[in-house]
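Can you give me the bound-state structure? Components:
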Amino acid sequence: MLQLDRLLYQQDGFSLTADLQIASGDRVAVIGPSGGGKSTLLNGIAGFLVPREGQVLWNGKPMPDHPGERPLSILFQDHNLFPHLTVLDNVAIGLRPDMRLSAFQKAQAISALDQVGLGDKAMAHPRDLSGGQKGRAGLARALLRQRPILLLDEPFAALGPALKDEMLELTRQIVHQAGITALMVTHDPQDALNFAQYAILVIDGRAQAPAPIGPLFDHPPPALQAYLGRRAP
Amino acid sequence: MLRIVLGGVVLIALLIFSLGTALVVGLQGRGLAALSGADWSAVKFTLWQASLSAGLSIVMAIPVARALARQSFPGRQALITLLGAPFILPVIVGVLGLLAVFGRAGWISSALDWAGFAKLSIYGAPGVVLAHVFFNLPLVTRLLLQAWTAIPAERFRVAESLGASPWAYFRLIEGPMLRATAPGAFLLVFLLCLTSFVVALAVGGGPRGTTIELAIYQAFRLDFDLGKAASLALVQFTICGAVSLLAFIVPLPQTNGLGLDRVPQRLDGPRHRLWDGFWIFGAGAFLVLPLGAVLLRGLRHMLEVPPQILTASLTSLTIAIVSTALCLAMALSLSLAFARRGSLARSLAEATGILGLASSPLVVGTGLFVLIFPYAQPMNFALSITAAVNAMMALPFALRVLMPAVQETYGDYLHLRMSLGMGSWIWITRILGPRLRRPIGFSAGLAAALSMGDLGVIALFADPDLQTLPLMLYRLMGAYRMDQAAATAVVLVVQSLFLFWMFDRGGRGHATIG
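Here's the bound-state model for the whole set.
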């Protein structure tokens, strides 16, 4: 279980509070208006921000301070891959940041690439990949790392509708099969519905407790209604 | 059409000034046979000091830039601004400051003497390299800092979340960035040190401290041997030409100062606080102490400035303003003529800029002297020649600021202009002018400050009656009247910075321009 225990983050005059729990294996969408604190929440869980108060716990134990030691992987919209490394190396650094791979680890990396359908691109460089393929490479790395939590910060927002749906579905399957707890920041209510079972609404510097996503969208509270406008899915 | 003609005229004028003078010099010189063993050791020393200065500047700039990139502390922005100062600081003032700290009568020597050790002596090779590092370390630091802040924040976070060790960090992020930037920075500093004259004039000399530029000057002023000066100038031109050709393979870094004000958000900051603090403090002290020493001493002796300072100030000011106008006219003509042409024309214009960077003022000066000598007394033209050469020396920097701005304006608004049927007059006064106001102000400030502090051609041509501020300062130093020299330095610095500030401020205007 992922527990955000009375968290308070402060950054450049902006503050975010969160006090909530997410059960293991749940897929949660993080929604809300721009500037509401969605990315701050993710950066906090990832350990990029130090909380002013409270702590992040995993299965009852406080997470280590250093992001690299936390039981999670993170996928950004852009710049997940290092341009000078091959796709294989980009994935393999998920296991060994120093790229000293054993033969077994290399085989693992290749198998992760196979799982996302990029097996033939192992020796390519990121500049040779399409937007969707870059997303797949990022997923392969998260898969390889086998960390129980995956944070997704609008990972496919720049892709076209069909491709985005395809990537969301792939991510959903992977996360589901591996039993990973996933948090995804998104601007698109439809994406949230497609991917997640629960939604955390982040508005005015407060992250609300996750609610089942279907009922939430069917009967949105006023703040969510104002955010969605007439675009409710 | 007019644009193309103007651009062409400027281009031809530049070619005559750089390649033409070199050709004249080549014809006049007695070839390589005129060069003695001492001259060849000057060639060797020039290459050696330029490599060492460039290498040291980069090796030391890396930790400083990295420290600035990942630490945030009060005064960070002030320090970064200060790093830009040596570029427009009159070189002779910087040298005076270094002597005040590292010289025989400087602070360190006094401390060593008091403790019973031998005094430092920086005349010759150590002084040349020290001064070159003093001037170029800040420049390279800013270049690298810019490259550092241009790395997307996500990359650092990915590395961080993978638990990368410092070495893995370097291989993933910083190594590739340095591989892309460091060679260009090295080349730039190498070129600047190759053609630097004032440093060698002030602290160089002797068998292990004479650069080619200094040798040209000495052949000219001390031996009155025009043929030998011309032969040396030819060697200098060849070396600079060869090195600038390299600039086509290794692109010189762009210096537009973008992103330098970005506040770092790096998690690894606290881990490296001590190490980074050492470099920030060290670089800050290395920069501030020499300047502080001169300015303090100068202010104490302000009343002792020689009366000739008024005429010298006025002469310097006149040269600076004429040279600024000339430089701007050239830079604008070239930018407007070539900004929208194909890539061939653009690289031609860029090559002209590099030409200006690679031409040595003394080679140009020698060439002009040879050209004028048969018909008139070259000394009579000292002021106009100085203004022209100064304009040419500042041109590469003005081009680097103006060309992208012109390109951007055309790229962003040309289609809009055509669809609105906007006439040239409106386009120039309402769109292009306001958009270019800031870069014009900035490059004018650069050109004015560079010309104000220049001590190149003027040293070659000036008769004893002619005084500019840097020349006066140099002569006072030569006479060991250090108090008066420091006071003159204060006047010179104030005047340079005021000119820069005035032009730059003028470019910013009162209204905010998108």
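A couple of observations. Residues 82-130+141-146 of chain A form one domain. Helices of chain A lie at 38-46, 87-92, 103-115, 131-145, 161-178, 189-195, 213-218, 222-228.
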